[in-house]
Design goal:
about 600 residues; alpha+beta; five-stranded antiparallel β-sheet; five-stranded mixed β-sheet; about 50% helix
């Protein structure tokens, strides 16, 4: 028992002053930290949004560049444009050419954005046609046609728009326009400014943030819509004394070969609210601390001194978790609590060790299962077999082998379930055996019998394959023909339906020392990365079925190994341990 040291006694007012000093210091420190944190977050948020906006602007620039090239090439080289200029509007050649041109631009529209509108203006005929589905009203269409006609009459009007994206106003709505001219014919592309900037408005720019398009002369093309859906007054400042905390950042994005630019105003109104909330929380903490101080003054003689003695004794716990005798308080409840706390610490220590060991075991099983899933040597063997077939020009066999290998690995890598249908697992085993038959040149036969009623029975994935792989590894040779059988049926044992699966081969069987260990449930030696298949399969079945599954091993009288699995009906989820970490692995070891 540790000896209690004597401390200098102070009046309760001394501790109250300390609490007040700590509370006020914490309030000031919280204010400083909050201000610094908000500033850093504002900068990071603005930088991230700026990068996001730039990515979209770069994408638009790429779209503009390709559309420019597509329209210029079409206008100058497409025979459909020439045919439409050479024939009347009602001629079959004109209609066919118009239809072909329409289809091309519909595909272009699908590849980029359906908001883009495309028109062809035949100057010699004063005829303007939409060559893709358009989103303009008739009045806007007429205004656009009049402006294009004006371009034809006065080239000075057209010069600012030639092969350069510009803005135009049609019936009160701003559009982004690009016009190409070739031998009196015009190719026009336009998109509503609001549609062009639409994705940027989907970015969270803050409650008071907005995105807009401006022309080079400073004219606003789109209406700035705030993050809360309201219309913003450009240049307004609505936060008064909180302006210092506003996260207002303006980002300007330039478009290539365009007479306009995009401006983003990033302004998160929530930061100042967070700041106020932080201050209120700290003020509340100070009030609570003051209240606690007065309570301490009132109860100093009845409660504080016994609690101080109890706390003092708790400070002398040994590092290995063994408590000292703390029965020195004048309050019986505290003495009882101390004893119970000592017992609790001991139990927690025991539980921690047990949980730690369980976690290590789960991680090991998970690692072994991952090793089985990857199967690099099996994959390389498959590739080698396909290569050998290719050298012998075995086209049909190569196709079958490649397809079987693909299906096999798709099942391996896409299967993340704890249970699969018996039919799916059997099909996977069948594919694996077919692959091995290609490798071993029909050195073995196999027989699979599964009752029709068992096709939908749930079974852990890759369990059957573990034992089939062992049969292939140890029973199949190129000198003697072998037979591998898999028979699945259903029996009732002890009033419970049990799925019984028997796997047998005609090989040499289990070595006696291995068979003895398997029958006694003794773990096999896995130090060299072998013999992990059977042990992990047993552990998986024990975990998934709550210890109710049974696996029996034997050597057949006529030679060969036999494995029988007794799988009960699937337990309720509440009865299962966490199966996510129980992964099967490969290899039979020496069995």
């Amino acid at each position: 028992m540790a000896k209690r040291a004597e401390n200098k006694l102070y009046p309760i007012k001394h501790y109250v002053r300390i609490i007040m000093m700590i509370s006020i210091s914490a309030l000031i420190l919280d204010f400083i930290i909050s201000f610094a944190s908000i500033s850093i977050v504002k900068q990071q948020s603005a930088r991230d949004l700026r990068d996001t906006a730039q990515l979209y602007i770069n994408r638009i620039n790429g779209d503009f560049s390709y559309i420019n090239h597509f329209m210029g090439w079409t206008l100058a080289n497409d025979d459909n444009v020439r045919l439409m200029g050479a024939h009347g509007q009602n001629d079959a050649e004109f209609i066919k050419a118009n239809d072909m041109l329409y289809r091309r631009f519909v595909e272009l529209q699908k590849s980029y954005d359906r908001s883009y509108n495309f028109f062809l203006y035949l100057g010699r005929k004063d005829l303007m046609l939409n060559i893709a589905p358009m989103g303009l009203t008739y009045k806007q269409y007429q205004e656009l046609k009049e402006q294009i006609g004006a371009y034809q009459v006065n080239s000075q009007i057209y010069d600012p728009f030639y092969s350069r994206w510009s803005t135009v106003r049609l019936d009160g709505t701003f559009y982004v326009l690009n016009v190409f001219l070739y031998h009196g014919d015009y190719m026009i592309c336009l998109i509503a400014a609001d549609d062009l900037i639409g994705p940027l408005r989907q970015i969270n720019l803050g409650e008071r943030g907005y995105a807009s398009i401006w022309t080079e002369d400073g004219s606003l093309v789109t209406s700035p819509i705030l993050g809360n859906g309201e219309r913003a007054e450009v240049g307004q400042d609505t936060f008064g004394w909180l302006k210092a905390f506003q996260a207002k950042t303006t980002v300007k994005g330039e478009f290539d070969n365009a007479s306009f630019f995009v401006k983003l105003v990033i302004q998160f109104g929530a930061f100042e609210k967070i700041m106020i909330a932080q201050l209120l929380i700290m003020l509340l903490a100070v009030i609570v601390a003051c209240s606690l101080s007065f309570i301490m003054l009132y109860f100093r003689n009845k409660v504080l001194q016994p609690i101080k003695s109890f706390s003092y004794n708790l400070a002398f716990w040994t590092e290995d978790g063994e408590p000292i005798d703390i029965a020195s308080s004048n309050i019986a409840e505290l003495e009882k609590a101390g004893k119970q706390f000592a017992q609790l610490v001991g139990q927690i220590k025991t539980y921690k060790i047990d949980i730690y060991e369980r976690e290590i075991e789960k991680q090991r099983i998970q690692l072994d299962y991952m090793k089985l899933q990857i199967k690099p040597h099996f994959f390389l063997n498959c590739l080698t077999t396909i290569h050998s077939m290719a050298q012998m020009d075995m086209t049909d066999e190569i196709q079958k082998m490649a397809m079987s290998t693909s299906i096999y690995f798709r099942y391996i890598f896409q299967n993340g379930q704890d249970f699969v249908r018996m039919e799916d697992e059997i099909e996977h085993v069948r594919i694996y055996l077919d692959i091995q038959k290609h490798r071993y040149r029909d050195a073995f036969l196999y027989r699979i019998e599964v009752g029709e009623r068992l096709r939908d029975t749930p079974i852990p994935p890759l369990v059957l394959q573990t034992f089939i792989e062992n049969a292939i590894k140890y029973a199949v040779s190129r000198d003697n023909d072998s037979l591998i059988t898999l028979v699945a049926g259903c029996r009732r044992i002890g009033g419970e339906a049990v799925t019984v699966i028997r796997i047998a081969d005609t090989g040499p069987g289990f070595p006696p020392h291995v068979l003895e260990k398997l029958r006694q449930g003794v773990p096999l030696d896995q130090t060299h990365g072998t013999r992990i298949g059977i042990m992990n399969t047993i552990q998986r079945l024990e975990s998934l079925y709550g210890g109710r599954a049974v696996v029996r091993f034997r050597n057949r009288a006529g030679g060969g190994a036999g494995v029988t699995l007794f799988l009960p009906e699937l337990p309720e989820l509440s009865e299962l341990t966490d199966p996510g970490t129980n992964k099967p692995t490969e290899d039979r070891g020496s069995a």
